[in-house]
Amino acid sequence: MRTPAQIPAIAPKSPKSSDSSENELAPQSTGTYPPTRQPKPPQSPITERPIYTESARTVPRLSAWVESAAVDLHEYQGKELFRRVGIPVSEGRLVVSPEEARAAASSLGGPVVVKAQVLTGGRGKAGGVKLAETPADAEQKAREILGLDIRGHVVRRLWIEKASDIAKEYYLSITFDRGAKKPLFMFTTQGGVEIEQVAEENPDALVRLHLDPSEGFQPWVARRLVYGGRVEDPGEQKQIAAIVELLYRAFVEFDAMLCEINPLIVTPDGEVKALDSKFTVDDNALFRHPDISEMRDTAAADPIEAFAREKGVTYVKLDGDVGICGNGAGLSMSTVDVVAHVGGKPANFCDLGGGGSAQGVVDALEVITRDPQVKSIFFNVFGGITRGDEVARGILEALERLDMSKYPIVVRLDGTNAEEGRALLAKAGNPNIHAEATMLDGARRAVELAR
Ligand code: GDP
Ligand code: MN
Predict the structure, then answer these.
(1) What protein residues have CB closer than 5 angstroms to ion ligand 2?
(2) Quick check: 168 and 265 in contact, CB under 8 A?
(3) Residue of 234, 229, 235, 247 lying closest to 189 (CA atoms)
(4) Domains in the chain, start-ordered, CATH in brackets?
(5) Least confident of 179-188, 348-357, 378-387
(6) Which ligand lies nearest to the CA atom of residue 124 in the structure?
(7) Residue 315 a catalytic site member
(8) Which residue of 211, 245, 319, 435 shows the fewest CB atoms closer than 10 Å?
(9) What is the distance between the alpha carbons of residues 26 and 123, in angstroms, rounded to a whole number?
(10) Residues 35-63: pLDDT tens digits?
(11) What is the pTM of this model?
């Protein structure tokens, strides 16, 4: 599914994706990235961006990773948040069985639309959105859609909504443009299709407009979007402008990273409303929103990531076979990149955090070894607050408590108490532990051992 990380990249296709030089309202490009005709550098498995060895380049990768830790809400949940701020949506019910679908349809009255609630877009094309004329028809359509596999997402819940008549389909969204350090509105009257397609085939029809967060929302922002999109009907102009303001309110109030309405429809009577919702909330702000925190669909997430969350381990599953554990997001991410750089495939991103305790190390190893793809594990620790002896103790403890016999563990310890840590590991004399002095050697060794 499309993540917010990819949205600002719509127009610029090069590694300049964090730079909005194609937007006349954005600051000019500094032009420091290599031109695209140079050979393509290896891609970071986390951000799918090129890997650069300069340390300055870790900054955009870090932010992109943080984005991937966001919480995606289902359509019905996003619509609930829309409703709370006053954005018009249709009445509907959440159901989990064909019988419930029938009951929901008869209580709503009239034709309904039966919609798969899965965390991926393009449900319509995949057969996950169907109109039903009668309650019996709704039951039948529910039977067809429940259990459907839409790009790996199995449908377990349905949203039954009063069907709308559609005269026009527009598109409206707000997201962060990290390059410009501002929220970015996008609006087009060419809605209903994937926005990337509009950006590619009909870029003039897509209005992009940044909002200065220190100024906050100004009515001219909405007017500029609406006029820029050449909406001519005054009734539509007014309603869309109001929705733009409400969408910004939802974006700020719920600490969102993306609020997208596609399609934003106009009915034959000229009424404008949100027919779909894509809502992504910054998970760092969840403590402020206990209700949204409960909306998080853990069943839809990766089971190892869900287990990691339970254990309090910062972990992102990747596709390779070298398990990785670092301390601090920056070093952990660099470790992922270096492993990829020396030809390996990282199995995960895992950050012990600062002040990592032995228990934290055991927990991290328990999470990493749940992934059946893992063949070797690379510990890359630069002690600051984190102490090398504590990490070593954690590794030895994990070796005692978990069945780690099939994993070669490469350890690179540096910084605070690194010598003590190395001495502890040497004393243990476990043949599965391989000490390396540098990050690069450690990565090479771990990749070799995974073969
Ligand atoms: P997506 O395919 O996952 O983006 O799901 P949407 O919620 O956007 O629905 C897909 C398409 O189904 C929309 O673009 C509409 O064309 C159509 N659709 C959804 N709800 C209704 C409705 O109430 N009435 C009609 N006529 N079409 C609908
Ligand atoms: Mn849609």
Answers:
(1) 262, 276
(2) yes
(3) 229
(4) 91-162 (3.30.1490.20), 166-295 (3.30.470.20), 302-450 (3.40.50.261)
(5) 348-357
(6) 1
(7) no
(8) 319
(9) 34
(10) 334 344 455 554 444 444 333 333 333 33
(11) 0.65
